[in-house]
Specification:
- The longest helix has 30 residues.
- Helices cover about 85% and strands about 0% of the residues.
- The protein is an all-alpha fold.
- About 60% of the residues are buried.
- The protein has one domain: MFS general substrate transporter like domains (Growth Hormone, Chain: A, Up-down Bundle), CATH 1.20.1250.
């Protein structure tokens, strides 16, 4: 396979662009939407349910992906993104919570499928470049979705734009049908392999990187929009969150490609240090300057960490264990979102950002000793232990 963006990588990237154009835009306004209805707790509970069930069902998603293939699982999972947005229009708290749970299932399927499919569709010497390209397009969809929705909400309020956005994930659903069905022969010991993955200490330590990255993402989704609203007003939520996604659009492909050349470990460590710095700026921010500076640093962290988290899967897995390692990575990284959203709903004030910076620092300290091993040795070790 040539070291370039091939048809399958292009299609999956475009599909996720449309899925998260719709869902990513709505997703970033959920707590604000419910705060204007004087039900901000519903927004937090909905988000927690999505990521809680995504976390719980990710191991099961690994089995489904191994059995039915990434393509079919992603197609099925994409439907729940539209369903969730449509449900928001009903105003029924019960239906919203049910749709949130179902979206957790869909998210577990679509992201586990994406993690294994993108690696299988890419050249092993171009994992970072392919991951960076995928990240650029998917984040482009989110960024445009947020910026446009912020503009539309300021004119039409929430329900009309939400209705339009509910159809966008269906475009991604349609595009996914055009993917080649890439998968290995179904394993006869799926439950044994997922059990071995869950019990493997090396996989858990590697997953701490995904955990910390998604912990910060949880803050961006649930807590930082409220901070932006309190300092600058609701109109600036779309602008600053689009800024958060603009940096990855410009630089993710570059970071991914350079990590193929310079090595993944350096970029992972850089992302930790930049993310901690961004959180500290948010901790000290009482006005626009430090708030914007903190957001820029978190955006840079996002631009580096996202393609690294995808490429890392290819660096340490084989065809036989990729689905199950991706599933466990998905479970752990989603737990970061759940904990961050839970923390934001119960802990008030700037202390949230300091706690988050400490969490990232501890994660780096635990992961760093493992990086004394080469990825080749880590892959061989996991191949022996998860087979």
């Amino acid at each position: 396979m040539e070291r370039r963006i091939n048809r399958n990588v292009l299609i999956i990237s475009l599909a996720f662009l449309f899925i998260f154009f719709g869902f990513g835009g709505v997703h970033s306004f959920i707590t604000t939407y419910f705060s204007q209805l004087n039900m901000v707790h519903v927004g937090f509970i909905s988000l927690i349910l999505i990521y809680l069930f995504m976390m719980l069902l990710s191991p099961l998603a690994g089995i489904f992906v191994s059995k039915f293939g990434s393509k079919k699982c992603m197609i099925f999972g994409a439907l729940f993104y539209s369903l969730f947005i449509f449900t928001l229009l009903t105003g029924s708290v019960l239906l919203i919570y049910i749709a949130s749970i179902l979206l957790g299932l869909g998210a577990a399927l679509i992201w586990t499928g994406q993690g294994s499919y993108l690696i299988r569709a890419s050249d092993e010497k171009f994992y970072g470049g392919a991951a960076g390209f995928f990240n650029t397009l998917s984040i482009l969809g989110i960024s445009i979705g947020i910026l446009l929705l912020g503009f539309l909400v300021s004119i039409f309020s929430f329900k009309g734009p939400f209705f339009v956005y509910a159809f966008l994930p269906l475009v991604g659903f349609w595009l996914l049908w055009g993917l080649e069905d890439l998968r290995t022969k179904e394993s006869t010991n799926q439950f044994v392999l997922i059990k071995k993955s869950i019990r493997n200490s090396t996989v858990w330590r590697l997953s701490l990187f995904m955990f910390s990255f998604n912990f910060v993402s949880g803050l961006v989704i649930g807590i930082i929009p409220l901070k932006i609203k309190s300092i600058l007003g609701v109109t600036y939520i779309g602008i600053l969150l689009s800024l958060y996604y603009l940096v990855p659009i410009i630089s993710s492909y570059v970071f991914g490609k350079f990590s193929d050349i310079k090595g993944r470990k350096k970029f992972i460590i850089y992302s930790y240090l930049i993310g901690i710095a961004g959180l500290l700026f948010l901790y000290f921010s009482l006005g626009p300057f430090l708030l914007i500076l903190g957001m820029v640093l978190l955006a840079l962290d996002f631009a580096i960490a996202k393609p690294m988290s995808i490429a890392l899967v290819g660096d340490v897995t084989t065809e036989n264990n990729i689905d199950f390692v991706v599933a466990l990575f998905g479970m752990i990284q989603t737990s970061g979102m759940v904990i961050a959203l839970s923390l934001g709903s119960f802990v008030e004030g700037r202390i949230v950002y300091m706690i988050s910076a400490i969490v990232m620092a501890i994660s780096l300290l635990i992961l760093f000793p493992l990086f004394r091993m080469s990825f080749t040795k880590i892959k061989e070790k996991l191949s022996r232990e998860i087979l």
